[in-house]
Design goal:
The protein is of the alpha+beta class. The chain has a single domain, classed as HIT family, subunit A (2-Layer Sandwich), CATH 3.30.428. Helices cover 31% and strands 18% of the residues. A 5-stranded antiparallel β-sheet has the order 1-2-3-5-4. The mean pLDDT is 96. The site of zinc ion (ZN) has 6 residues, from helix 1. Zinc ion (ZN) binds next to helix 1.
């Protein structure tokens, strides 16, 4: 499987840096975002390193979408948001900051006024962990 030694998500896949892991199968993993735009913000990624949407093998897009759907269903059950955006950035102009393909599962609340680029403020890890435990129990 392709990996990039300098890629933070490849390190998460390899287990060399920790994450709140929600789900894993042969081709994908899902985990909590550490700079959440909202409570319950999670990411679904392929295990193999592909920089963006353009580089993704189509069959792997299907696998990541299945994982994102599984996470979204669990987020809905666990946190009951008013909506969920699936967000995916390609290139600097789209504010992509990690060049390993990922789908954001981004819970929304009516009136949260979350912008497309929500800024990367470090999350409160106790709060991220509490949301992780609720979603993990629902997955
Ligand atoms: P992008 O800006 O590329 O659309 O999204 C990258 C996401 O990865 C950001 O929301 C950011 O918070 C998240 N992220 C960056 N580094 C880490 C990390 O080390 N662990 C986790 N769990 N998320 C990360
Ligand atoms: Zn990578």
């Amino acid at each position: 499987m392709s990996a990039d030694a300098n890629c933070i998500f490849c390190k998460i896949v390899a287990g060399t840096i920790p994450c709140f892991k929600l789900y894993e199968d042969a081709d994908t993993i899902a985990f909590m975002d550490i700079n959440p735009g909202n409570d319950g913000h999670a990411l679904a990624i392929p295990k193999a390193h592909h920089a963006d949407f353009f580089a993704m093998p189509p069959a792997l897009l299907g696998a990541v979408s299945r994982t994102a759907q599984r996470v979204a269903v669990a987020v809905q059950k666990a946190l009951n948001p008013d909506g969920i955006n699936l967000v995916q950035a390609n290139g600097k102009g789209a504010e992509q900051s990690v060049f390993h393909f990922h789908l954001h599962v981004l819970p929304r609340r009516i009136g949260d006024e979350l912008k497309m680029n929500w800024g990367h403020k470090p999350g409160d890890m106790a709060r991220v962990k509490a949301n992780f435990e609720k979603i993990k129990a629902a997955i």
